[in-house]
Amino acid sequence: MGKEKVLLLDGNSLAYRAFFALPLLTNESGIHTNAVYGFTTMLQKILEEEKPTKILVAFDAGKTTFRHESYGEYKGGRQKTPPELSEQFPYLRKLIDAYQIKRYEKELYEADDIIGTLAKQAETEDMDVIIVSGDKDLTQLATDQVTVYITRKGMTDIEKYTPSHIEEKYGLSPQQIIDMKGLMGDTSDNIPGVPGVGEKTAIKLLKEYGSVEALYEQIDNMKKSKMKDKLIENEEQAKMSKKLATIFTEAPIDLKLEDIEYPGPNEEEVLNVWQELSFKSLIDKSDYKVEEKETAEISFEIVKDVPDDMLKDVMAVHVEMENEHYHTCLILGFSFTDGERTFYITFEDMQQSEAIKNWLEDESKKKYMSDSKAAQAILKRAGIELRGVEFDLLLASYIVNPAISGDDVATLAKEFGYTDIQANETIYGKGSKWSVPNESTLAEHVSRKAFAIWSLQPIIEEKLKENEQFDLYYDLELPLASILGAMESEGIKVDISTLEKMGGELEKKISALETEIHELAGEKFNINSPKQLGVILFEKLGLPVVKKTKTGYSTAADVLEKLQSEHKIVQYILDYRQLAKLQSTYIEGLIKEVHPEDSKVHTRFQQALTSTGRLSSTDPNLQNIPIRLEEGRKIRQAFVPSQEGWVLFAADYSQIELRVLAHMSNDEALVEAFNVGMDIHTRTAMDVFHVEADEVTSNMRRAAKAVNFGIVYGISDYGLSQSLNITRKEAAQFIDKYLHSFPGVKEYMETIVQEAKLKGFVTTILNRRRYLPDITSRNFNLRSFAERTAMNTPIQGSAADIIKKAMIDMDARLKEEGLQTKLLLQVHDELIFEAPKEEIERLEKIVPEVMENAIQLSVPLKVDFDYGQTWYDAK
DNA sequence: TAAATCGGT
DNA sequence: CGAGAACCGATTTAG
Known about the structure:
By secondary structure, the protein is α/β, with parallel strands linked by helices. Among the domains are: 5-162 and 247-260, Rossmann fold, CATH 3.40.50.1010; 301-468, Ribonuclease H-like superfamily/Ribonuclease H (Nucleotidyltransferase, domain 5, 2-Layer Sandwich); 496-598, Taq DNA Polymerase, Chain T, domain 4, CATH 1.20.1060.10; 657-797, DNA polymerase, domain 1, CATH 1.10.150. Helix content is 49%, strand content 12%. It is built from 36 helices and 23 strands. The protein is globular and about 110 Å long. It is an enzyme of class 2 (transferase). Residues 2-263 form the 5'-3' exonuclease domain.
């Protein structure tokens, strides 16, 4: 057993410090958490580094302390604690209790005094002491055995005050810190000190005289000066100030060192508090174990086959898979429940069951599921066509609140207070330790999922109806899931030999550039490492530093472009970057994703991920295939139709977001512009620059285009100045002129922010919601971000609504017309089909018609289209 | 695992 | 005053 180590924490001071040092975080129910968060990260760090054996958190008790007896104005004029902080104290106490750390407060005494008293006691018992506070006053307690930690910004950044550190920093002993404060005072505690004496003067005086008392004993010898007069004049005040600043080390506390023994945290309790406060990063990082959770008993049967009468008209079904890659992974098992009986069956047994297969394919048998798209796709690989999905927990949760993250049933269920499922991690383990458990464990786990879906269905549907979002969910997202599933399963064919050929050529160019760059740099280095590259550019070659990142020099493209004239290596690096990106992401990356059986890529569209309602695409991401630069655009030549005699047909909305803005803002000029079919950027340029159509130069149009983009994103002068490379002032003038020309837009932007503040969320055309808790934040950054989001989300989200509706209408129309054409991809404002050549003529009519009429706006929607032998040719 | 970078709309 | 365009995913380095 080593030496005892005592940790004494100044609770109030640390909470204050954290509150002001960190942005105003909130948890899901809107409670502010930043002070508790800062306290926690600091505590975790110290626990880990110091491993204390005894801990106490001291708090200030009430408003009055013994110091008020001698000086009524003590701590007077203090701002009262902000409510956003006050509300955090109960949670802070709860957290401390969960750590099994003792907390203490005593009438009439401040936390300082409690800490000072215990520190002294511990020292006499020859223990090491660490004091942590945000308040430098405590440094007066430093001795050889007592170290005072003062948190700096960020809370985990700590300055350690030992007597020698204090000596180094101020040239004073710890005891003289009190004298210093006596002389200089402390505005935050309303301690007066001597007027005109600040830190510098106080230190100078103390170096000469040693203490306040010694100073006044010898003051007659001091040579005449203004300062001397001040000192004499304020002698009483200085002495009183010193007294006030002195921490009392003999407070009558009924607490002994034995009482603050630290047994270690109750890990489960700590995790619970973290959960409640949404400290996700801490939960992820920590290795705290949750005690085997008491989950309610569930009865389930493991069956080999299912008699028909067990398969009801409405059931919750869950398909358990190995992982999220449902286009390649295996099914682990199935569970079914009708709320009365729950059963589990393995994939192998299920394949032998005609009854189950028929039931799954029967449209009239209603299924409650979660992520039905994944189930549909994986079942299709097993030769089963899933039909009749009536409820999808994943999609319903996403509509209730798109901020809900996680896609497994346990996580989603928890969002609605349902906790009777264990985390996948506890069942399977994670990383290399992942493994399938024994059958009964697995069966129970999977059964619980089906049961959770069954239990939550009525609650969530009720919530959707209450929010008037049931139609959005049931008529849009749910049918869309099935369409997306079909698109993914169909896949798009990739000609690997084209990619390989391009890769070979790229390889040559890249290695030539590499040689050239190393030559110009005078040494070999990894061009892909921004860190190494930064050293070469800004240290070795001495190029001017335009922008810095958190960790060093920025070497981003916009920075390099500004440096092009400085050194010819810069252009080579830009070229290298561009080609290396193509090679690694779009040649090698894409080839890895091609399924050898069918030479196709089968992306997964994430339907419940983005906060605006857009889709995203993964493995591979087919929504960011290059197009802007010709070299990259050629990648599209590798995407080809799956059959001879077919083509790829692409149709995209023209200016959909600005049209949505015109509709929502009802701005007269904007609506008019779209109604007469003008080029919107030219129109904007005319209004902003006050010129006629034929006087709009290409530069004016370019500027107008950037302004239009800015408007959609929730404009700021800074953002526009960056995108146009102009000054902020000029950008601000552009914006001003724009809003003057389009007053309806101005009004819309103001109204939507107001509405967000009032309701706490914004909505799209089809009533999709996004909650914006930060819209009322006092933190400028957070609030500004929320305001821009309030402006952008209804626009981006409504555009997403429109194309989703178009996909559903398009799917229906293709079926109606008996066409073979297949929808393959969606790229935010664009749909890509493959079609037999014979159907092109009809598609040229149908596709624009369906897309343009998906939702009626007060301005027309316009669709452009093209087709060709490859995606490249369908421009 | 986080940060930097860059591809798309 | 502040510090900032909206929404994504993949690859690479570096700790």
